[in-house]
Each structure stands twice: as C-alpha cells, then as structure tokens.
Design a protein that fits this description.
By secondary structure, the chain is an alpha+beta fold. Helices cover 19% and strands 23% of the residues. Among the domains are: 110 residues, no CATH class; 117 residues, Thrombin, subunit H (Beta Barrel), CATH 2.40.10; 168 residues, YVTN repeat-like/Quinoprotein amine dehydrogenase (Methylamine Dehydrogenase, Chain H), CATH 2.130.10. It has 15 helices and 37 strands. Strands 14-15-16-18-17 form a five-stranded antiparallel beta sheet. The protein has a four-stranded antiparallel beta sheet with strand order 9-37-36-35, with no helix packed on it. A four-stranded antiparallel beta sheet has the order 10-11-12-13, with no helix packed on it. The two termini are 126 Å apart.
Length: 802
C-alpha cells in the first residue's frame, strides 16, 4: 500500500497547531479519550495504528522531493506567513502559472511594488506569486485578507436570455385594467405599447421593418421580431414541409453506448466510479477490524443459531409441502367451436331517464304490473320520466342484476357442441319381450260367487285342485279350482269375519286353518275333498299334541303350573261332526297366519292396538300344542311375519322396519329399511335371497338380502294402496293386488349363484274386480305348479287367472 500511494500526488496543507495549554486541558478533561476509545480495543489495534502512522510518515518523506502541484489557497493567517514545508532543501523552480493555475497566472514583470506577494521558500530560490487578494489590518491589528472581485466571462450558450418582464407565468389579461403590463428587474413599470388607431397611424407613417410578423411577444407586449431564417422555418412548418433543406426526419440511430468504438463518445456517463479512484478510510478500517475480532472471539454472531422451534417448522414444511399447480400454466388457444360470452342488448327508449310519452305506462298498466309475480313480469322495471339526469334515484335492483349477469356469464356455454339425435326409447333398459316370458296369467278363466260381502283371504291346497276362501260373512268355502264349483262350506261365526285361511303344507294330511276373531280353527273338509286314509292321517296330526301336553305340563320357576297364553282345546261334538277338529284361542284377533315349510310350526300376528307388544307375535307347535312368544318387547307395531325356506330365520315386519332374527342363536341378524310409511305384506322368494314388501303408500319394494338394507328396486305402478304380494313357488313370477281393483303380474328372475342381479319385467295388468268402499283386491295366491293365480276382491267374488 505504501508503494502504491507513493506515486500519487498529495495536497499538502499546513494546519495550525493548538496551544500547549489548550492541549493539556483537553487531555485532562478526558472527553476526547472517551469519544475515540471504544469498548474492547486491544493492544493489537494500537500497534496497527502505529504502523499506519509510520506508513504515512514514509509517504510524506517521499513527497518532499516532488513538485507542489496544488492550486489551493491558504485559509488561515498562519498559512500565509509560514512556508509550505517546514523542511528546507533543493527543489526545482516551479513556474507561477503552475502554482496559481492557468487562469490566474500573470507574468512577474507586470507586478507592481505595491502589490502584496506571498513568499514561498523553495530551497535557495524564493519566487514571487501574483495572488488575488491583499492583506490589511483589522481593528485589532490582526492581518485581514481582502479578495479582489471576480470578473465573470460567460461565453456559453446554455444561459437563458434575460427576461425584461418579471411577472413570470401570470397572464397578461390580469393587467388589462392597468396602464402597464408588468415590471422589470429593477421594479419599474413597463408601459403598455400603443395599439388600435395610434398603432395604425404609426405604421402608416413608417416603413415596415424587415422581420416584422404582426405578432406580439406575450411577456413584453412588444412586436415579435423574427429573422428571415426563422420565418422560413415557420412557413415550412405550416405547409407540413421539412423545416430545412438538409433536414432528415428519419435519421439513423447513433448507438452511443452499444456501438463498436462508441463507448466513450458521450462526455457524461452514469457508470460507477472505478476502483482505482477509491481511497480507503482508516476509521472504517478500524471498525471493520474490531468487528472481525469480535466475530472470531464469538461476541458477535453473524447468523442466529437454529432453535428447536425452527427445526420443527422446517420439518413441518418438508412434510406438508405445497406446490403451485398453475405455476407453469401457459395460455391455451380457444376451442375451435368456442362461443363468445353473451352480450347484453343495447338499452332502448324505455330505459331512458326521459322516455317518450308512449313508453310511459298508465295507471291501469302499472297496477297490472304490480299485481303480477316477479317471474311473470315482462320487464323488471317500469319506465319513469325525470326532468334531469341528476334527479334519477338509485336503482334498487342494481346489485341483483349484476349478480344475475355474473351467473349468466358463468353458466353460459363456452363450446358449441353438435346436437345428438338420440331416441328417448333407446335410453330405457332393454327388457325382453313379454311374449318370450310366457307362461303367465293373462285372462280370467273362472269367477267364484257365493260370499256375502268382502272376500278377505284365499288359499290353494298343496295339490292344486281346490281353493279355500274366507270373508266378512264368517264362512269358509272350498271351491273346485278349474270349474269354480263350491264343494264345501262352513260358518264359523255370524258376527266375526274370517281374516285368514291357509292350507297346511305337505301331502300327508289335508288340514285347513282359518282365523275368525280370537280363535284359530283347524278344519278337515268333508265330502269329496278327502278319502278315509287321508282323513285318519289328518286326525293323528291334530290329536298328537293332546298327549304331549298332558304328559309335559308347562310349569313356572317355582314349580307351579304355568298359565298358558293360548288355549288348545277340542271343539264341541257338533263342530267335530262338521269337520272342526281343533281350536286355538288367542288373546286378540289374529290377522296373519303363516306356516313353516315342514307344517309343524306356524306363526300368528295380532296387530291390535289393545294387544301387548310382547304377545302380538306367537309361534305355535302343532305336534305339541305349545305356544311361545319369542319377543319380550317388540319395537313397533307388528304387521306380518314369514319363515325362511331353508334357514332358521324369522322375518318380522313392523310399520316401517323389517327385522331378521336367527331363532337358533336367538339374536338379531339384520334390519332392513324399505322406506315405506306403512308395510302391508311381505313375501319371501323360494330361494330365500330376495324379499318382496308391499305398502299402503302404493309402492312395491324389492330387497336383495345380499346387497344391503335398502331396496334394490322400487316399483310404483298402482294408484292406490297395495294389499298383498306373493312369489310363485316354482316359476319366476310374482303378483300384487291393490285397492285400485287390479292385479299386476311381473317376471322376476333370480339367479342362485349371485353373479347376476335380479331381473324384473312388468308382464300383465289383470282387471276385473270392482272397487267397493275404496277397497279393491284384498288377496292373491299362486297355483303350486301352474302359472295360475287366484284373487279375492271386496266385490264378493273370487277370480281365477290363467
């Protein structure tokens, strides 16, 4: 660094030294020490400062042998009297113009003896210099420097022309009422020039000078004088011509900064100062060295240490990293079939604030518009007349209209799509032709008449030869199926209706069960219906329970005889002679009787409101004359029950739920939610995998027990309540009966392997029953082998459909 500074020229200025007394005061005070001394300063820093001072001493000693190249003028009294350097030695004589500068240098011969000259000592020779000041004494006797006045000589064109009128940007119209038009630089008024008749007479008396334009200078109010060149330029500008002969309106651009070899063409530049002009600061060097030392010792830490919170935050950011999926998105061209956004129609006369009179509604039209619903109105507003635009009030539906406009833009189609010509019928599922699904019942083959009142129940025997029916007249009738001839009849009660008739399954006995009131009658039809061998077998089945009940009486936990909930008894002799062999008395009226497939068990449902829920459902054993109530407390009002054909499952239907119980394990297996308001009947498929549920709210529900608790299909084909539904025992058919007087037959194909869903196809609507008292067809039953069904109606007839 010393060698580099040695070659530089330095300005040497003599600085006055303070008095010793003042210096002692300063040192004794100690304020300067506190100002320059900082905490943490060590001996190394002091040694570095001493080294720097030695370097500066070396530089000063080398500069003694060089010429003094400075144009500075001493600024104190002592500088004028003292030599520039305190040391004497040989130096080359320096010309005066180098000492004082090129502009102030004068020849020595022209100096007069009276001019005070500062003496410089340069070795043996002491040249005199002409200075721009003189020395005088002030009132205290001290020397005083008096500088000569500077004579400026400006030859540059950058200076602005002198303005005579000093009013600035104030318009001259402000001085129309005054005889003057402004003020000059000395504050004197500038008189208004002559105008009007005086000016015309003056122009007539004198010649028009060259360059006169007839224009007035706005700043002075005097005629504007222009040169011939300026007049020529104005003429060309008014004619849209080039202002000069050699003028090029489209010159080539001069690349001052980017052209080759043109980097230094411009005299001014905004480039930063080069490093070669940088002179480092010793004070900043000391401060930086202290900071470096503090960093090494650890007192200053350039970076904050990572805390546990910072580490956790970084781990969370790495674990839940967020990515901008639209960061690399580029604009895409519009679709070929793009549709621009819909535009609003232009406003009409009715939207004007001052429409024509024919657009204004009268009183009658206004009342009609106000009475209409907002959706039915042709326009959302009525035209109104205002005398001025500022009197137009705010529009109350402004925000709603803008919102609807945004919805229009959002929901409007953006792509023009070709219209698809699709036949609506092709969207429907392809169902097989009903003619391909034959056989199924399609016409009425026989009508059975004889009941007085409604026929509530109908049943076909396991052989398929006879049909039994029960009605409101309290009688049970047996009909020949094909001919419709009545073979046998018995009256069970005169004031009670026969609600249910059902044949016992199996071919070993011919037993008909009928529910009339609170009693269940087990009947052996007489006459042509049975032979002696079948009659004896039927009697043995019914009488077997009496011996078992006598030998095994039911007892309580205390060992006392248990009161039976149902009474099994033999009827009187008169009834036995008519075919009634056994009676079962319940606590309330039975509405449903369902047999198990073996024929030894059956279940009854007594859904009366007075019946306790625990005794509403009962399971009876015919061979033991036993009655059981499997539910201590039943949720809901019981409607119907059914046995599973292959598993020990028991289906219980309440008003809105169907529960499946495992009788062997005594637990709830599954609960179905048909979604019906009131369940009327249910029927289980022979395979046991599907369940049909009818309801009084005109819906027929198909449940696939392997899929879930909700219906697989919902069929709505009836206009009134559905009373009963039955699966065919052997064929893929099922039928339902409704209060609208119709019986609808469906094709229901069920695959046992579970690889295919059930197929439901409507086949035929059977009409023939009449509606009486809002009641239509009350019951339906299938033939065990053929595609025939029997229906019982409220009109007192029974119909065979084949």
């Amino acid at each position: 660094m010393v060698s580099q500074r040695a070659g530089q020229k330095r300005k040497v200025v003599e600085v006055p030294r303070p008095d010793p007394e003042e210096e002692e005061d300063v040192l004794e005070n100690g304020d300067i020490d506190d100002a320059f001394e900082e905490e943490g300063e060590s001996e190394d820093d002091i040694s570095e400062e001493d080294d720097d001072e030695d370097d500066f001493d070396g530089i000063a000693s080398q500069d003694e042998g060089e010429e003094l190249d400075s144009d500075e003028i001493p600024s104190s009294d002592e500088e004028a009297a003292k030599p520039v350097n305190g040391k004497s030695g040989k130096r080359a004589t320096t010309p005066p113009h180098q000492l004082m500068g090129s502009e102030t240098a004068v020849e020595v011969a022209t100096l007069s003896p009276e001019t005070p000259v500062r003496r410089l000592e340069y070795g043996l020779e002491k040249p005199e210099i002409n200075v721009s000041y003189r020395i005088a004494e002030d009132a205290n006797g001290n020397p005083r420097y008096i500088y000569n006045e500077i004579e400026p000589n400006y030859d540059s064109d950058d200076s602005a022309p002198e303005t005579t009128n000093t009013i600035g940007n104030i318009p001259l119209s402000y001085y129309d009422e005054f005889p003057h038009i402004g003020y000059d630089i000395n504050g004197r008024r500038i008189a208004r020039p002559a105008k009007g008749e005086a000016l015309d007479s003056l122009l007539d008396s004198i010649d028009i000078p060259e360059g006169w334009t007839g224009l007035t200078d706005p700043s002075t109010g005097k005629p504007l004088q222009l040169s011939s060149e300026e007049l020529e330029v104005l003429k060309k500008l008014t004619r849209n011509e080039a202002p000069g002969d050699g003028y090029d309106p489209y010159p080539d651009m001069v690349e001052y900064f980017t052209g080759k070899g043109m980097e230094m063409t411009m005299p001014l530049s905004a480039a930063p100062e080069p490093k070669r002009r940088f002179v480092p600061s010793m004070h900043e060097h000391k401060r930086v060295m202290k900071m470096v030392k503090a960093i090494k010792e650890g007192r200053i830490k350039p970076f904050r240490e990572r805390t546990e919170e910072d580490r956790e935050r970084e781990e969370q950011q790495q674990e839940y990293a967020s990515y901008d999926i639209w960061s690399n998105e580029v604009p895409r061209p519009d679709h070929v079939m793009n549709i621009p956004a819909p535009k609003l129609p232009p406003p009409g006369y009715e939207e004007s604030y001052h429409p024509p009179p024919e657009y204004l509604p009268d009183k009658r039209e206004r009342e009609e518009w106000e009475k209409q619903d907002e959706e039915d109105r042709d326009t959302a507003f009525l035209p109104e007349d205002h005398s001025a635009l500022r009197k137009v009030p705010g529009y109350a539906k402004f925000v709603m209209e803008k919102f609807e406009r945004c919805l229009d833009l959002y929901l409007a189609p953006r792509v023009r799509r070709s219209k698809l010509n699709i036949d609506p019928e092709s969207l429907l599922p392809k169902l097989p032709d009903p003619n391909e699904l034959r056989p199924f019942p399609s016409f009425c083959a026989a009508i059975y008449r004889g009941h007085e009142g409604r026929v509530r129940s109908v049943a076909i025997d396991p052989e398929g030869r006879y049909a039994a029916s029960g009605g409101d007249d309290g009688t049970v009738r047996v009909w020949e199926l094909l001919t419709g001839r009545q073979l046998w009849r018995i009256r069970l009660a005169s004031d009670e209706a026969v609600n249910v008739v059902s044949w016992r399954p199996g071919h070993d006995a011919c037993i008909l069960a009928a529910c009339c009131g609170e009693t269940v009658y087990f009947i052996l039809p007489q006459g042509e219906l049975s032979n002696p061998e079948l009659e004896s077998q039927s009697r043995e089945v019914l009488d077997a329970g009496f011996g078992h009940a006598a030998s095994n009486p039911s007892k309580t936990a205390d060992g006392k005889d248990k009161t039976p909930s149902a009474a099994w008894s033999r009827p009187p002799t008169s009834q036995q002679d008519r075919g009634i062999l056994l009676t079962l008395t319940l606590r309330s009226t039975a509405k449903t009787l369902v047999w198990h497939r073996r024929g030894d068990y059956f279940s009854t449902v007594c859904p009366g409101t007075s019946t306790h829920t625990s005794t509403a459902i009962a399971i009876h054993t015919l061979s033991k004359h036993q009655t059981q109530h499997p539910f201590k407390k039943l949720k809901g009002l019981a409607q119907s029950v059914s046995f599973h054909p292959t598993k020990p499952h028991f289906f219980v239907a309440t008003r809105q739920r169907i529960r499946i119980y495992d009788l062997q394990q005594q637990k709830l297996e599954k609960e179905l939610q048909p979604g019906a308001r009131w369940i009327s009947s249910l029927s289980l498929h022979p395979l046991g995998s599907n369940l049909l549920v009818s309801s009084y709210d005109k819906r027929l529900l198909w449940h696939d027990l392997d899929l879930g608790s909700t219906p697989y299909k919902t069929l709505r084909y009836h206009s009134k309540a559905i009373r009963a539904v039955k699966f065919h025992p052997t064929l893929p058919l099922f039928a339902d009966s409704s209060d609208d007087g119709t019986v609808q037959v469906f094709h229901g194909k069920v695959v046992g392997d579970g690889l295919e869903n059930a197929t439901v196809v409507p086949l035929k609507v059977l009409k023939g029953h009449k509606v009486r008292g809002e009641l239509g067809v009350l019951d339906v039953e299938w033939h065990p082998r053929e595609a025939w069904c029997v229906s019982a109606g409220a009109d007192g007839t029974i119909r065979l459909w084949m």
